[in-house]
């Protein structure tokens, strides 16, 4: 999810799915999730905006849970909806106060609503931490705030014990949120977020929960892993294992890549292929992060638009894009043919400035790094971004020996497929079977997503609704271009976060 970047996980629906937290073996915390069929109320778009606020289990379900508890150990309910959310319960304080949280590898803080949250309606829809009722509470009081793309929370730090599965982390710093503005947090099914990222992005320099689990000897191995079941309503919804890896949930061997930048679980990624053909966009390398707190798969607009064009996703016409193609398309072609470096073309035609390494537009600010300052200049950001996308697209088409007329026609088609402002793109459910595979090169291996894996579908027959699992977000250098491989990718590939060896591993999910 990540401070200061678009929290895509907050844009999607949250509703009922059941899951379990089984008692761990020594030095290992196993968090299995069990799904129930998604609530059928409302359409996909309504679900994303409103959320589902019902959902306490009935007596029969409670009896079933009790029987399973006797067989498997401690059980904690986890909820999910449409394969877009995976989250579950933790306990804070003595005696425990229970909260539903997202286990988020894209942020590093733990926060839950506070009983002192009086002015935000969102707090009244969720469980609130009551410091006065915990015997293990310790006062801190340091102010804290976390800003997301769809809202923000603010409050202050407190100290208490945190129970995850069957282990208890003592003296854990967390944020009591006293303000949660915006509709997003009000309709969210989860109460808070438990960050599993590195301390480098922890607000207030708070020690993350995972760090304390390792430091306090609560896990044998400094490793945790995720398995997400993408078949809604069929058995377990997924599993998080703290301290190890469950061999039952992957096939073959993991491909590991080193963490290149601590903060998010960031690593280097290679070429992106559409239907087996190179896009060339990341042939020389791109940065990527594995993020359990993001539902979809996010990448630069230039390549996401190409993907959505190939799968027939309906986007919004960008007048800036069409204007660039109309006014500057031929000049871009001429400069590419003259072997002008692609990074200099948009500045040479007057749409971007050039900082010595790449083009930058006026007003660009990193959505990942809050400290990134605005670039000076007098040029329009949208036109600069459109120009840089056009350069990528045209370069790729020229490499395929397309005629110049066909290149410009194709670029105009891509302009038609630019995503909507919210990043959503709908597709025809009847065309899913004919859509191309999309592959990502990681550690020299191609990780392929099939259409049924990257399309989110609700309903059946004429009432079915489908959306593309790809959404665009442009993060400028030096942090970007950055890909965010969320639940769409992690559902297809079992993911290991090796904190001890600073690497991330992927294997086909079983």
TrEMBL record:
Involved in the breakdown of propeptides of storage proteins in protein-storage vacuoles. Gene3D superfamilies: Acid Proteases, Saposin-like. Keywords: Aspartyl protease, Disulfide bond, Glycoprotein, Hydrolase, Protease, Signal, Vacuole, Zymogen. Disulfide bonds join 117-123. It comes from Urochloa decumbens. Residues 86-507 form the Peptidase A1 domain. This is Aspartic proteinase oryzasin-1. The lineage of its organism: Eukaryota, Viridiplantae, Streptophyta, Embryophyta, Tracheophyta. CDD domains: phytepsin. GO terms for biological process: proteolysis. The active site is at 104, 291.
């Amino acid at each position: 999810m990540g401070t200061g970047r678009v929290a895509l996980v907050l844009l999607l629906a949250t509703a009922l799915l059941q899951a379990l937290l089984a008692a761990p073996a020594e030095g290992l915390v196993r968090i299995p999730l069990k799904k129930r069929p998604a609530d059928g109320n409302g359409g996909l778009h309504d679900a994303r905006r409103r959320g589902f606020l019902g959902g306490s289990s009935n007596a029969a379900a409670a009896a079933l849970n009790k029987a399973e508890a006797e067989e498997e150990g401690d059980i904690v309910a986890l909820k999910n909806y449409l394969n877009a959310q995976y989250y579950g319960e933790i306990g804070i304080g003595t005696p425990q106060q229970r909260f539903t949280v997202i286990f988020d590898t894209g942020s590093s803080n733990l926060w839950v609503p506070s009983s002192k949250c009086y002015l935000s309606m969102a707090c009244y829809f969720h469980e609130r931490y009551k410091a006065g009722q915990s015997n293990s509470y310790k006062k801190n009081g340091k102010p804290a705030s976390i800003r997301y793309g769809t809202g923000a929370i603010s409050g202050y730090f407190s100290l208490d014990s945190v129970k995850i599965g069957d282990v208890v982390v003592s003296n854990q710093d967390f944020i009591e949120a006293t303000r949660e503005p915006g509709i997003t947090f009000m309709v969210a099914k989860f109460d808070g977020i438990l960050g599993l990222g590195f301390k480098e992005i922890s607000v207030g320099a708070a020690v993350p929960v995972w760090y304390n689990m390792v430091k306090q000897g609560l896990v044998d191995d400094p490793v945790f892993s995720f398995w997400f079941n993408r078949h809604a309503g069929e058995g377990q919804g997924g599993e998080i294992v703290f301290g190890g890896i469950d061999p039952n949930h992957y096939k073959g061997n993991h491909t590991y890549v080193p963490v290149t930048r601590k903060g998010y679980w960031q690593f280097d990624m290679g070429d992106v292929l559409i239907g087996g053909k190179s896009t060339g966009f990341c042939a020389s390398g791109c940065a990527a992060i594995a993020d359990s707190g993001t539902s979809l798969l996010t990448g630069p607009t230039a390549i996401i638009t190409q993907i959505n064009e190939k799968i027939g996703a309906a986007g919004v016409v960008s007048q800036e894009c069409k204007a660039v193609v109309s006014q500057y398309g031929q000049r871009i072609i001429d400069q590419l043919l003259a072997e002008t470096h692609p990074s200099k073309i948009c500045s040479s035609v007057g749409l971007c400035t050039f900082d010595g390494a790449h083009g930058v537009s006026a007003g660009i600010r990193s959505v990942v790094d809050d400290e990134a300052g605005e670039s000076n200049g007098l040029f329009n950001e949208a036109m600069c971004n459109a120009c840089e996308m056009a350069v990528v697209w045209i370069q790729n088409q020229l490499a395929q020996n397309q005629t110049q007329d066909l290149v410009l026609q194709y670029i105009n088609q891509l302009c038609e497929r630019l995503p909507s402002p919210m990043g959503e793109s709908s597709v025809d459910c009847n065309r899913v079977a004919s859509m191309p595979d999309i592959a990502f090169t990681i550690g020299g291996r191609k990780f392929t997503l099939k259409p049924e894996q990257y399309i989110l579908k609700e309903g059946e027959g004429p009432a079915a609704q489908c959306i593309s699992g790809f959404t665009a977000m442009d993060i400028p250098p030096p942090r970007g271009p950055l890909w965010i491989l969320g639940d769409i990718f992690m559902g297809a590939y079992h993911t290991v976060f090796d904190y001890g060896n600073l690497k991330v591993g992927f294997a086909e999910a079983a």
